[in-house]
Amino acid sequence: MTRVRRGCSGPARRVFGGVRGGRDGGGCGRVRKVVVAGGTEGKGRRVYGERDREGGAYGAVATGGIGFGILGEVTVWAGDGGAVRVPELKVRTLLAALLVDPGRPVAAHRLIDDLWGDETPGNPQRALQAKVSQLRRVLAEAVPGGRELLVSRAPGYQLVPGEGALDAAVFRTLAARARRTPDPAVRAGLLERALAVWRGPAFADFAGEPFARAAAARWEEERLLVVEDRAEARLALGDHAALAAELAEPVTAHPLRERLRAAQLRALYASGRQAEALDGYASLRRALSEGLGVDPGPELVALHTAMLRQDPALDTPRAVAPEIPAEPPADASGPSRALAPIGRLVGREAAVAEVAGLLASRRLVTLTGPGGVGKTRLALTVAARLGDRFPDGVRLVELAGAGGEPAEVVAAELGLRDDGVWGVRSPGPPAERLAAALSGRRMLLLLDNCEQVVDRAAALVELLLRRAPGLVVLTTSREPLALAPETLWPVPPLDPDAAVRLFVERASAGAPGFRLDDGNRSAVAAVVRRLDGLPLALELAATRVRTLGVHRLPGLLDDRFRVLRAGRRDAPARQRTLRAVIDWSWELLSEPERVVLRRLSPHPDGYTLEAAEAVCAGDGIDPADVLDLLAGLVDRSLVQMVGDGERYRLLESVAAYCLERLRESGEPAAVRTRHLDYGVRLAEAAAPRLHGPGQWEQLTALDAENGNLRWAVETAGAGGDTDRALRIATALTWYWVLRGRLGEARRTLSAVRELPGGAPVLRARALVAGTAVTIMAGDSGNRAALIAAALAETAAVGREPAECAEEMPDPELTRAHWLLGHALHGTGDLAAGEALTGPALDGFRSLGDRWGEAAALADRATQRLLRGALTAARADALRAAELFDEAGDACAKLWPVFPLTAVAEIHGDYATARRLREEGLATARRFGLSTQVPELLSGLGRIALLTGDFAAARDHHERALRAAAALDFRSGEINALIGLGLGARREGRPEAAERHLREVLDWHREVGLEGGNALILAELGFLAAEAGEVGEALRLQAEGYAAAVSTRDPRAVALALEGFADALAAAGRGESAALLLGCADAARTATGAPLAAAERGDVDRVTAAVRPVLGGGVFAAAFTRGALLTPEAALAAAGVVV
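Predicted structure:
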């Protein structure tokens, strides 16, 4: 059996010439990971093209080789057809730049410019070589010998894809073959397949890069030419009505392309829509005149004249595609079935092309998917399009509810009588007679709804394919036939864009005034999301717009089976209501399958196999049977595989149905307990692993389970199960912190604390965790009281009996001290932080907790830095990094980065500081550590500021501000605003500087961070002095000096002294200014960190202002005298009252 698997992952959403890129018209499709040719089982050869009727190959079949894609996101496919991950943006950029001119050398200097632009690294050639080596490793891992595809060739590097290995080459080959083909039907098919190669706009993920723009535009032009070629081929076939509808969107996207518009006008005219055709011409003429100042070309003018004259030449014969009679030869007596689907097929353009392409080379294709996904309508559309390829026609046989043996139903539909059909007389069973009748025929047989008789249908199809070599079979079924030659094509739900289009189209048919606008867009999107993009469900919901409006619909879908029951009267009974659709599938299940399905229904975010086994086994279900039962549910399209099969999920409507069945079963309480127990085990097992080498896997797993765990906490709380709610919430605290979900953490921990009861130790943990995340989020002005309450409750809990050795500290209290102290980072409350970190460090060391020791050391390093103890801070940070390395915790290793980079900056080692922060930013992004990203961006902005790159500094800080705001991470925003304020003053933008700094000052005061104001007040004082407001400058510097003294940081005190010197210089008191500069210089030198050259701007400016006035000797004497005084004495000597 061959599976054709698809998905969608590109950002692009656009129409590709009437055939939408990717899955079902939603835009840029995901890489088709596995497409197997020739009936090969499993992951096999990637098929870009098919084979024509004469058997000659066109396109490319990359057998065991490597494939490259540029028609969509830039992609690499391995020899087995799977997508290859190309890590790191620069490496992907290199690949894209080489594929702009595949097979041609690209100069090294051009590649360097493409990769780094204006931010060229110090050794660009070496940096480029490193990226080339990384890309070669990727290619080598993808396929043996892949490294040799990327070669060094003057003047740079050359990527040499194999023949047919580039999707763009396949596209061109198909288009060229089509243009050489005289038969319009064959030509249209080839062009259809050429367009199906596209997954989205060329170089979609590099659309904004200069190196890709011209190539993307070039390929887009080639695509549009093929769209136009295909339209003209279909005009020649008389396929006017369908073509007119399909061209509406590409014409809207490219309104001035005259050839495309001409094809649309011909199609409209020939399908009886002459008025629309004339209006279309008038619209084009107006657009050309207003937009370009030109008239339509001669061809369009001639077409317009012919339409006005009603030229008979425009009335070419119409296509038979909408209703293919598929009549047998003259001696046949059986009836024919019309195949035109009722209503326009929306959002399935690419699906039609892909399935049609498969049927050109495969003899058995099965469309699978859940009920209501649109299998039948898709099959009818495909069959209608392919009718002219089968001399003996296309026949539809409906197996649902037909009764009897499938062979008898098919025979009846084909008019096979006991006395023979089509000249064939064959006694025996119906299947044998049918096989004999079809043995010499070339026919497409469409078997619809095989799931009710799947075993018998499979046996019949196997016999017919073996005995009738000219027969091709297209089936629809909610489960596979499981035959060797079968190619499965799972029909996915509509992507959001297509789903919205379908809903709006159907709603406006029942409510003519309805249209999509800004007022109802969010409500429509909610309906689409809640109904999983299932076409039938969307159509049922659309019928309610006329009586309910659209805004009430999302809320009413909580009771969807009552709401969605007004289906079409011409639909089969099983498709008239949403409940009937799912009832049909439920009735086909065995009892064990029903038990497993209803037990899975509470999980809102899907589940792993491990979770399924945990919640489904027991009470009649053997754990060893869960896998097979789950596989059966996947085959029956009631359970969906997500990604590569690591997770499974139920569509929301299926889950809602199964929840009803669960309540009816009498076992909801037991199943709920299983789900909660699994949630507790999962969260508590993950918590310690977040501190070690498996943290990436754990973070990813918890990302996938986050919705389920949130549901578990809420369900436990609502059911009075406080202990389980507390256990899950506290176990998830560190995950939420790492992911930057402080709001979610705070809300959840607050909610579980409000629940009645619960073990005291669990309640204490929740209080500590909730207090910590509240402080981290920057929303607590009464930190001291909150911390005291959390510590008191933790101490009152006492230790477990096994932990009662007097000489050992209490682990619970030690962890509480550390977490609360860690939360105080960024608050400026140094004394409180030190009072917590010290006991935590001692406790972790006594307990032998190496990770805890590293965490406390990292915190103490920052505290020592802020106290001006630079050597001690660096030593603590290095030891913390060493211990985190030992533990394998790459995330926590970011904590020592701040003190290490700060010490490097203070000593003027900006290269080291930049390197540490860039490495830290890469780690934060790799692990998704959201709150670390804005902090590290602000750090890079500070380095840019110190090195005089004001534009880069502003860019980094603005990005940091946006990132922090998106997380509701107020302290991250404040750090970014500080950087923006400092940069604005140095750029000569005093108004912007004061605005940013005042916002920071207000927030510091709001939350009680007076100690953090030393820098802010000094900067505001400098601004006031520059504006000539000396009195205000002295007042601000006095406030700043008091804040600096409270921190006990000599560098902060020195900054305040420099600020006083600036104000005094502005007041004409140069000698006092020189004295204070000398005192400040001595204070900095005493810490081992005199001002680096890049930070001397204010000091040098004041010196330059007063030295010439005083004279060198007087200035030096005052400066030397100040260096011998304490700050207090120096201020007194300068006549400054503080």
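Summary: The radius of gyration is 36 Å.
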